[in-house]
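User: What would this chain look like folded?
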Amino acid sequence: MLNVALSFCIVFTIGEIFLLLKRRGKKTGVISDRNTLSAFWIVLPVSIYLAFQTLKLPSLESFPLPFSLLPAGALLASLGLILRWYAIHRLGQWFTVDVALSQDQVLMRKGPYRFVRNPSYAGALMTLAGIGILLGNAPALFLMTIPPLLMFLHRIRVEERVLSKAFGSQWVDYRSQTWRLVPWVH
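Assistant: Here's the prediction, encoded as structure tokens.
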């Protein structure tokens, strides 16, 4: 399953590089990023690299995951990629890799944004968790999920402050009707 994990990792990484090159906020509005994009590009590569390094651990020290979980990892990674790209597509011209709002920004409430305020991050975390499962050991799963989750939660707080300031009571209403990242959990 290493080849499958590597394939998902390559697809995910190419997508993120494409977004970095094509969807910067400086073209559309004021950037309020507070270095969260830089954190993303530090935490993610380091987490991915370290997760793949766990494959060098002796099997007893690596806390292997049950082989039966591997198909679930592939499904989770696939669904995560689909959710991330659908959320980005749904947000359309207002999606940027920076925390930035444009003059004509709208508060998206359609598609996956009806249920979750950050579906592209949820999709990314699903993809990373799926890759962690495909790597077949608990330390890899931990490294592929926990550091990126902490980074995304910080970025979400930054984004939500910006959205609250921009949309006021409309944001408060939307926030009360949706989950932050995972339905029924957070």
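The first helix runs from residue 2 to 22. If you want, I can go into more detail on any region.
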